[in-house]
Amino acid sequence: MSEAGFSPDQIDTTRPHPARMYDYYLGGKDNYEADRDAAERILTALPDVGVTARSNRDFMHRAVRTVVDSGVRQIIDIGTGIPTSPNTHDVARRMDPGVRVAYVDNDPIVAAYAGAKLTNSGNAGFVLADIRDPAAILDHPVTQDLIDFDEPVALVLLAVLHFVTDAEDAVGIVRSLTERLPAGSHLILSHGTADFNQSDGFGKVTKVYNEESTSSAQWRSGPEISAFFEGFELLEPGLVQLPLWRPDGPVPSGADLRRHMGYGGVGVK
To answer: Residue 189 in contact with residue 231, Cβ under 8 Å?
Structure first.
């Protein structure tokens, strides 16, 4: 068992993992042949997956700045993925160096990178756990050490819930994760959708994830994604296409905007 909490036999680089495929979409190098092969077939079927991945990162920056500006000083980031600078703690600490962050991912390889790129500057920790087991995340000693559940928390679920199907009770999982959060807490959420692009490429993408990767994919509509915010009041402008959430630069329109195949929103409890 490693210091990061996993054994060598838990590492499987022969099967594509969404976290490492996402790293490939972003132009990262921390991925393996199986990840690259699957990601290339997805980019062939839906070339704008890469555009959406980058707009998802930009949304994270704006959303984290917003919640820290509101006074939140502790963050649980589930589905962390392969570290990509600036990471959540980098963005938050530009506004307040004292922000505490608990990173969570189910990929042992993410855990291996966490010590060097996520948790080496203090006030941050990593939990190797799956979003499908909320208690394992919230009750983990690292989470309990970093997060005071009597104070507002920002729960970050970026591009992770489309890898949790209805059969796995995605709505119930989010409810279990948020019910312990006190008033004033925030939910930052993004999710892939076919609402803006009716390409048959979505079917091909789903087939790759479902038949080859470690997680199945389920794209949801805007109303279905809104259901995750039960118990939260959406901040303006609500649940919108990723580039339209409080943009800090030029906003795409028309055909360019339709390339961004994801919703983003921030709610306050």
So the answer is: no
pLDDT tens track for 196-249 = 988 889 999 999 999 999 889 999 999 999 999 999 999 999 999 999 999 999
For the entire predicted model, the pTM comes to: 0.93
Helix, strand, coil share (%) of the chain residues, nearest 5: 45, 15, 45
Closest CA to 194 of 49, 58, 66: 49
Polymer length of the chain = 269
What gap in Å lies between CA 49 and CA 178, rounded to an integer?
29
Give the C-alpha separation, 50 to 88, whole Å.
Answer: 20
Using an 8 Å Cβ cutoff, are 23 and 82 in contact? yes
The span from the CA of 63 to the CA of 44, in Å, is 30
Q: What residue has token string 């589930």? A: 78
| DSSP for 197-253, written as a single string | ---THHHHHHHHHHHHSSS------HHHHHGGGTT-EEPTT-SEEGGGSS-SS----
Look at the block and give the residue holding tokens 């190797």. Answer: 128
**Are 138 and 48 contacting, i.e. CB atoms less than 8 angstroms apart?**
no
Beta strands in the chain (DSSP E): 74-78, 100-105, 124-128, 154-158, 186-192, 233-234, 240-241, 262-268
